[in-house]
Write a structure and sequence with these properties.
With 98 residues, the chain is mainly alpha-helical. The chain folds into two domains: 1-58; 61-98, no CATH class. It contains four helices and no strands. The radius of gyration is 23 Å and the shape is elongated. The N and C termini lie far apart (55 Å).
């Protein structure tokens, strides 16, 4: 078998494996879970940085920051529920990984 034929067979095998993985629902769930965890981590990091900035840069006290975060979270829930019509379990996940 020549080099070109081996490469062609190897590519075909890789393509078949990728197509098989694309059709695997378990694989999709794993990827969705990983993306969800990364999103939560990013949002937590961002919230921490914003909270620090509110405290240090703008002099917000704990009560004022708590009220502000309440409005932000309430607005986000309202937007997701009323504007986009997302189900509640999709918007506010249960405390599984938190």
């Amino acid at each position: 078998m020549g080099r070109a034929a081996r490469l062609k067979a190897q590519r075909r095998e890789i393509r078949r494996e990728l197509e098989r993985q694309l059709r695997d629902p378990r694989r999709h769930r794993e990827v969705e879970e990983a993306v969800r965890m990364l999103r939560q981590e990013c949002l937590a990091f961002l919230a921490l940085r914003v909270d620090e900035a509110l405290e240090k840069e703008f002099g917000f006290g704990p009560k004022r920051r708590a009220r502000l975060w309440g409005r932000v979270k309430g607005g986000a829930l309202w937007d997701a529920l009323m504007e986009r019509g997302l189900p509640l379990d999709e918007i506010a996940p249960t405390g599984e990984g938190q």
